[in-house]
Amino acid sequence: MLTEEDRISPVSQGAIHDVKIDSIAREGDGIAHIQGLVIFVPGTKIGDQVTIKIERVMQRFAIAALAGKN
């Protein structure tokens, strides 16, 4: 059963965010965090400052597309 906290995500589909890539996933995607939520960003590397567009929001993570490098 989902709690109220599980239902509230710090991101929503289609939202634009400026983030810093702080690690790399096993598959090679960059990882950023927004209020503790893991965001996978393909095509990035550690240290990149990027603008992303959220494509999918799951319960424990989100997937974003690269919208621009800052």
SSE layout and pairing:
Layout (H helix, E strand, L loop, with lengths): L3 H4 L8 E5 L2 E2 L5 E5 L2 E5 L7 E9 L3 E9 L1
Parallel strand pairs: 4-6
Antiparallel strand pairs: 1-5, 2-3, 3-4, 5-6
Describe this structure in words.
The chain is mainly beta and 70 residues long. The chain has 1 helix and 6 strands. The protein has one helix at 4-7, and strands at 16-20, 23-24, 30-34, 37-41, 49-57, 61-69. It has a 6-stranded mixed beta sheet, with no helix packed on it. The longest helix is centred in the first third of the chain and has 4 residues, at 4-7. The chain is globular.
Number of strand elements: 6
Q: Regions with pLDDT < 50 over 5+ consecutive residues?
A: none
| Percent range of helical residues | under 10%
For the biggest sheet, the summary is: 6 strands, mixed
User: Rg to the nearest angstrom?
Assistant: 12 Å
Strand fraction equals over 45%
Ends distance? 40 Å
Strand order of the largest sheet: 1-5-6-4-3-2
Write down the overall geometry.
globular
Determine the structural class based on helices, strands and strand pairing: mainly beta
Q: Mean pLDDT, as a whole number? A: 91
The ordered string of helix (H) and strand (E) elements is HEEEEEE
Number of DSSP helical runs: 1
Briefly, what is this?
The chain has one helix at residues 4-7; strands spanning 16-20, 23-24, 30-34, 37-41, 49-57, 61-69.
